[in-house]
Amino acid sequence: MMGKEVEDYVDDLVLKSKNRGSHQDVLRKVLKRCRLYGLKMNPKKCAFGVSSCKFLGFQVHQRGIDVDPEKTRAINSLAPPRNPKELKSFMGRLSYIQRFILGLAAMMNVFTPLLKKGKPYVWSKECQEASSKCNN
Length: 136
Prior knowledge:
This protein is of the alpha+beta class. The protein is built from five helices and five strands. InterPro entries: DNA/RNA_pol_sf (IPR043502), Retrovirus_Pol_polyprotein (IPR050951), Rev_trsase/Diguanyl_cyclase (IPR043128), RT_dom (IPR000477).
């Protein structure tokens, strides 16, 4: 069941199925197992029979996985990092969605010198261009 019909992460579950009938079968199995082990669900966090949902910051649907548009908007609306700490935070946000950005590691190479101790932090035009490429 795990991996084939159910994806889990910590205390979150997503059930996968080809059609409504098989979805109901999978749901029955999962609910039966939850009852068997005394697991409870938060009704406010449950959505049954949907063809698309947000899961771990991604939009999961029948065709696959996409970045949650809200995450993309949040990254695009960030002001340029003003110091190494903000740059690390920015790079962390990009790393979270790196599988959707072709060549991200190469684009982020321009930021590496800004993280070296003892070097002045100067957000250059080159950094801004790389940041813009990463955000698109």
